[in-house]
Amino acid sequence: MILGALETGGTKMVCAIGNEKGEVFEKFTCPTLNPGETLETIAEFFENKNIEALGIGSFGPVCLDKKNPKYGFVTSTPKPGWADTDVAGFFERRLKVPVGFDTDVNAAAIGEVTYGGCQDVDSMIYITIGTGIGVGVYIDGRLVHGMLHPEAGHILVKRHDKDDFEGGCPFHQSCLEGMAAGPAIEKRFGKRAETLYDNPFVWELESYYIAQALVDYCLCYSPRRIVLGGGVISKDGLIEMIRKDFTKLMSEYIQSDELREIDKYIVLSTLKGEQGIKGCLKIALDARV
Amino acid sequence: MILGALETGGTKMVCAIGNEKGEVFEKFTCPTLNPGETLETIAEFFENKNIEALGIGSFGPVCLDKKNPKYGFVTSTPKPGWADTDVAGFFERRLKVPVGFDTDVNAAAIGEVTYGGCQDVDSMIYITIGTGIGVGVYIDGRLVHGMLHPEAGHILVKRHDKDDFEGGCPFHQSCLEGMAAGPAIEKRFGKRAETLYDNPFVWELESYYIAQALVDYCLCYSPRRIVLGGGVISKDGLIEMIRKDFTKLMSEYIQSDELREIDKYIVLSTLKGEQGIKGCLKIALDARV
Q1: Which residue of A has its CA nearest to B63?
Q2: If you count Cβ atoms within 10 Å of the first and of the last residue's Cβ in chain A, which end, N or C, has fewer?
Q3: Residue B107, SS3?
């Protein structure tokens, strides 16, 4: 089976040709310019590739409600030109194949569950901590959508005692994304996160905020595993700090076999950055049937 | 059709006989004493009533994983005598009818969706704020379970500027339940919440903490409606304060038709305290098929 996969991002678009086993045969990347030009470039890549379906994991916010006329649209994004763009509909009309559509983080979550280290669980969440913070939610065997889709990167967090940074989120200032995403680190310390690896205070704060959010997600979603991805998380030793802070903050309130093995509960992605694009292959597969 | 409904609580047990339309014909209440005695009293009530199935909404934590040998148990509760009690199994064996089992707050959520004011939505959450704080989660047409079940009453919250109360939760001190449940109000102000109706500071704090939690729930679950129940919420005018604080804290980050009509988004239960027991009738109905 030949399937198409498209991960749309704020700065670049990743396209791939693969199959139902999550194998990727060919990849193509292009910058995210204005929608007309960018979508056409992508369509030209997929044309004549004989794909049976296309799966899209999109930056948001998007409309995932099939009863809504805006299903498949990127909706109120601040990204210039992209608000109210019918992404799924464009490719359906242009490529004449079934198109599946979900958020980028839900795509990564379904990638982990289908092809990665979460094939053994029916409930998990995937969190990316990079330019922004996003959460993909797979519970009781299904991706969670709801009214819109989870936007759990913006939950409100307690301030760390020693942190006086006002926060970087234009909506909530000191929400999780405002305190812990890459740009928040850069704004607080005046340097990019990857140049601050030798400053322990940076990572003390980072671990505290991420662990706090994971406690809230664990209480809200009750996932069987938590997978971390994104640029910020690649700092050596950070995940160990997060596990420790999580255990302390949770304070044995939730008792389960999963939580007793914290090293297997809070983990890194096993798909080496391909969780999103592989998830899009699964979304394509599901669109076909 | 004759169905049995049982809401188990830390202080009392509510039993009812009703039907698939959510009509309640007969009710019986008994105190929650030791499990042997209490479950037997309940079984005697249901005997010879010709119920086709029993639906239970239980205080927790409970095991809802059908693959787990402890399915249907109340598990690690601090309530004396009740840890590791096989509630669902007891009634299955004793009454020889199918038994459905879920949390008390999930029962209230499914009650609202099936018989109450949420029949028009496929995603909603039900929050009870009383002796404890619990959240029932119904997303994309199904109750959410996961590893255990949501315990979202314990999410961590930002402290109000003028609040120096250390918090009343034995696990997390200043989590939502520790700051805003009935016992937290009583511990902070030295008097029960219902005697503090004329002290505006009490309700300023209460509204702030609840609204903050609702913002987090809205971001995590993306529900189409939020229903509030429980003793604390009966304070006149409190829901209006919560709606106002919610709108301010959310800061227009999520844009949806539902959120534009906040009076219809954050609402009180329409089932006048019967949301839980009616939900148990629906759980019984679903156990039958």
Answers
A1: A256
A2: C
A3: helix
Instruction: Spell out the SS3 assignment of B169-183.
Output: ECCCECEHHHHHCHH
Mutate to test the interface with A, among B138, B148, B172 (most CBs of A within 10 A): B148
Residue of B nearest to A70 (CA): B256
Q: Suggest the residue from B62, B219, B260 to mutate for an interface test with chain A (most A CBs closer than 10 A).
A: B219
- Give CA–CA dist A204/B270, Å, rounded: 46
DSSP-derived letter for residue B160 is P
Decide if B220 and A216 are in contact by the 8 Å CB cutoff.
yes
CB atoms within 10 A of CB B133: 29
Radius of gyration of the CA atoms of chain A, in A: 19
Average pLDDT of chain A, as a whole number? 96
CB-based contact A171 B251, cutoff 8 Å: yes
Are A150 and A126 in contact by the 8 Å Cβ rule? The answer is no
* CB pair distance less than 8 Å for B252 and A171: yes
Nearest to B9 by CA among B128, B174, B139, B184: B128
pLDDT at A79 over 90: no
Instruction: Write the CB contacts of B41 (distance below 8 Å, at least 6 apart in sequence).
Output: B13, B30
- As given in the structure block, the two tokens for residue A257 are 């076999």
Rounded to two decimals, the pTM is: 0.96
Task: Label the pairing between strands A24-31 and A12-18.
Answer: antiparallel
pLDDT per residue as tens digits for the range A27-63:
999 999 999 999 999 999 999 999 999 999 999 899 9
Q: Containing H/E element for A140? A: none
- Please check whether residue A6 is in contact with residue A13, taking contact to mean a CB–CB distance below 8 angstroms: yes
Residues 6+ apart with CB under 8 A from A288: A3, A52, A53, A98
Tell me which residue in B61, B140, B219 faces A142 most closely, judged by beta carbons: B140
Question: Cβ contact (<8 Å) for A144 and B148?
Answer: no
Q: What does the block give as tokens for A49?
A: 């590739």
Q: ipTM value, please give it.
A: 0.95
Question: Tokens representing A117?
Answer: 């280290």
Beta-carbon contacts of B17 under 8 Å, excluding residues fewer than 6 positions away, are: B2, B3, B4, B5, B24, B25, B26, B27, B46, B49, B51
DSSP track, A47-86: TTS--S-EEEEE-SSB---TTSTTTTEE-S--STTTTTEE
Selecting from A75, A150, A253 the residue whose C-beta is nearest the C-beta of B220 gives A150
End-to-end CA distance of chain B: give it in Å, rounded: 13
pLDDT in tens, B164-220: 999 999 999 999 999 999 999 999 999 999 999 999 999 999 999 999 999 999 999
